[in-house]
Amino acid sequence: MIRRFLTALSAALFLVACNGTGDEPKEIKPTVTLSEGSVDGNSLSFKAVVKNAFAAAYMCVPESEATPTSTTIFSKGRKINVDTEVNETVYNLAWNTTYNIIAAAMDEAGNIEMSTLAMTTAEQPLGLLLEATATTHKSFVFTLTPTNAEAVYYKMYKEGETATDADIIATGVSVSGSEATTITLEPAKGKYFVAALAKKGSEVVRAEDLTFSIAGAEVVSVDVKKVEAKNYGTDVLYDIYLQNSDINVIKLDCYFHEGSTSVYGEYAYSKDSDAGAVAHSYSYTSFLSSTRSYFTGGTVKVEDAGSGLYKITVNMTRDDEKVYDFTWTGAIQWK
Fold first, then answer.
1. Smaller CB count within 10 Å for the chain: N or C?
2. Range of the domain at 308
3. Gap between the Cα atoms of 184 and 176, Å rounded
4. CA pseudo-torsion sign 271, 275, 278, 280
């Protein structure tokens, strides 16, 4: 009886196996799972878990770019360790930009699974860089470089004055909030400050104020004398004496080509060249001293200012690097 039951059971099991009605083995595919980590302005981090895979890799591309294929990911992407949990960080990214992280996992049979994770970097904070770029005896040049600003304002104020944030916005000068701007100031002689701030919505960021001084060279009197007993063909030698607040006297010896008794023209001078019209210019540092400081180069321009007046523009540099750059208009007695 027992033997007959075992024989029947064996036959039944054989029929089940032949008919395929039992549990069949499931196909195991590779998987790659991505999850967000931390972000800042120029980097982002994420976690990757790869299972049942022979190889895995990922690429990070801006959302605006096309999604790379698995072939591109495996050939150009960064490799990921398989059958483990890994943390990855991508650097050198742009502020406030959405990126797609595309990962691919492949098993030994060549089956490929892909996963995508979108992440956005942090917004760039409001900022303003205020830099002095050049200073001369008569001008001050500075550059304003904003970041993530809607508007930028600057204001120049004198020594002894103040400039609050409200003052800068209300009475200052507005410039671009999206790109760098270079400004040149040419105030009168004195000490000054430049204040600047960037604004976005209700948020305000103020840069550290800059300080600068203008030396200036104010001419208070001019005397022009024609030198006698000098014969230079069609050129006539004149001495121009310019007295100002910086030094007592600037004496310029100038060759003016008169033609029809006209002295109008621009006369250049170079210490190393005889081609210029200003032959040998120098200044006396004191009426009572014979110490002389020679000019190394520059120009003297004489123009008709109308109504019998002359306009003399001087731009000369001494060998001590001091620059004299000013314009004088008035009547001249050609003696």
1. N
2. 219-330
3. 15
4. positive
Q: What is the DSSP letter of 150?
A: S
Whole-prediction pTM? 0.55
Same domain, 72 and 99: yes
Q: Decide which of 214, 244, 279 is a domain's last residue.
A: 214
Residue 51 lies in a domain: yes
Which CATH number do you get for residue 106? 2.60.40.10
Tokens of 189: 């002689």
Distance CA 302, CA 310 (A): 7
**Per the structure, how many domains does the chain have?**
3
Domain stops at, among 103, 120, 137: 120
